[in-house]
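[step 3/7] inverse_fold.run input=structure_tokens len=124
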């Protein structure tokens, strides 16, 4: 399955903020974590991640610093700020609203269980 570009773009900020809420991290590790969380379905590139990290840094949601580990090259680590935690909370509220609306459409009234594929054949 290929996840559409619009959905990838819409979910990028909450995914990165959520990962950085777990712990500070650097680019490659963030990409690896996204791949793990999506069971390989989201295969982001550096070209998607780094502009997002730079935008989040300009907005004050993340801070960065360079760290060196003996025997390895320097890495730029990103960590969430208080503003980033607030933005993550707002993103969670917004996504909960979207998910509730989707569940209402896909599952029907009163059924809030696991989303499963609904065959579209025979539907008007």
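[step 3/7] decode complete -> sequence:
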């Amino acid at each position: 399955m290929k996840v559409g570009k619009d959905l990838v773009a819409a979910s990028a900020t909450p995914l990165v903020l959520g990962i950085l809420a777990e712990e500070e991290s650097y680019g490659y590790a963030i990409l690896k974590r996204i791949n793990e969380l999506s069971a390989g379905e989201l295969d982001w590139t550096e070209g998607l991640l780094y502009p997002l990290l730079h935008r989040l840094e300009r907005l004050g949601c993340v801070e960065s610093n360079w760290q060196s580990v003996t025997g390895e090259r320097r890495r730029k680590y990103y960590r969430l700020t208080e503003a980033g935690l607030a933005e993550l909370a707002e993103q969670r509220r917004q996504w909960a609203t979207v998910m509730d609306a989707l569940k209402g459409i896909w599952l029907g009234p009163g059924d809030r269980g696991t989303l499963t594929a609904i065959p579209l054949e025979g539907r008007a």
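[step 4/7] annotate
The first helix runs from residue 5 to 22.
The first strand starts at residue 25 and ends at 26.
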